Structures are given as C-alpha cells and as structure tokens.
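Minutes, project check-in
Item: structure for the 155-residue chain
Input as provided by the requester:
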Amino acid sequence: MIDSKDFTELKPTMPFLFIIPFLIGTIAENFIPTTLIQTNISYVIGILIILSSIPFIIFALMELYKADVLLNARKASTTLITTSIYKISRNPVYLSLLLFYIGLSFIVNSIWMLVMVVPAFYFINKFSIEREEKLLEAKYGEEYRIYEAKVHRWL
C-alpha cells in the first residue's frame, strides 16, 4: 500500500538534480571560459527557449493547484492528473526546468553549462521520474499504466 508519506521522499531531491550540474557548469566556466556561439545570437536563442518553458510551468502549476497539491509539495495528490498540459507531457514541471536550464546556458553563452544539462537530464530521469512512476503505478495501477502508454515522459 502506498501512502502520501512515500511521495514526500521525492520532493526535496528534485531541485538539487538541476542545481548541482548547473553549479558545476558555472564553476567550470569560471576556470575555463567557453563560448557557444556569437553572443547576440546566443542571447536571443536563450530567451526564446526560456519563453518556451513558461507555458509548461504555468499550466502544470494550475493543474497542481486544482488538485490541491501546489502549495504543499509534501502532500500527495489524491487523483492522477491527466488533464491540460499533462495530456502532452507526464512531467511538464521537469520539462519546464530543463528548457529553462538550456535557455540559461545560451544566455550565459557557456558550453560547460550546456554540457551539464546531460547529467541533469539523466539524474532527473533516474532519481526522480523513475521513482515517481513506480509510486504512481503502485498507487493508481491500471489507470496510470493507461496514461503512461498514451502520454510521453517528456514530450
């Protein structure tokens, strides 16, 4: 039997899976400066990518608010959220953060920061999403398996 306590173990780890690679990229950039592409172009690309992340986070937060889990990240949802942006991505919050990170890498114009997106992506998949999926499958069973078959993990 899965209870809300099982989900609380997941919540605090998620931001660190982005922050640590970002900090490593920032430190590497300070020691060995790099340039992705021409600064003006890189800045525009970065802004566009960050702007593309906004709908994912806004619609995801709206759905989490409706499910009454937005303001209390340690509270497990009592229903499987499959509406709005969750029809496009099973992980729109992670997707938004990943796009934001990529965009920021372009704004800073850093190869190091962009390269560190790869371990961030891996860590999020391995240590957050895979664990969440197991818990969701245990909690919602066939309903989650049907949803998982219809909607991609990222896009």
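Outcome recorded: The chain has a mean pLDDT of 88.
No further action items on this chain.
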